[in-house]
Amino acid sequence: MSESKNIVWHDSIVTKQDRQEIKKHKSAVLWFTGLSGSGKSTISVSLEKELHELGVHTYRLDGDNVRHGLNKNLGFSPEDRTENIRRIGEVANLMVDAGLVTLTAFISPYREDRDRVRALLEDNEFIEVYVKCSIEACEERDPKGLYQKARAGGIQGFTGIDAPYEEPVKPEVTVETDKQSLEESVQVIIKYLREKGYVS
Length: 200
Description:
Blueprint: H1 16-23, E1 28-33, H2 40-53, E2 58-62, H3 63-67, H4 78-97, E3 101-105, H5 111-120, E4 126-132, H6 135-141, H7 146-151, E5 173-176, H8 182-195
Parallel strand pairs: 1-3, 1-4, 2-3, 4-5
Helix pairs in contact: 2-8, 4-5
């Protein structure tokens, strides 16, 4: 993919800080990462609802949803996974600039890819949320039947089965969905956001 050389960034007069002031809260990315079936999407949906009720301006980017449009030309090879996360990182960065609290739910199995997204954002704008869950519990849930297909050889390169998942080393927040309820997990994240001054 060649890059155009004749492009120049055009600054706005309205700044990210101006947008945050109108919204009355900071903007950031809550980056949910974890195995398939760990609960990333479920938690992000419930958290967004709770933040909305608190008057927080949000937008949620979900792995499957994004692959219906923006990333529908990508597969699941390591290279395509990296490009998937790169594009999502760029979109999330734009949404933070727009003053939104952006929730992203992607397996994002590689640390390097997640760190690359973190590097796009300013300090304290990337909040890594590790949705920790044993592979056994994820397989037991298997809401889409993907583990069963992967075990039967119907899906190649499936994270946790025949492709790696690299756990976060120092996530800002960890929730353990095989030990905590949905409500408990959501409240752990809300507590973090309040303590760090993202929401009041």
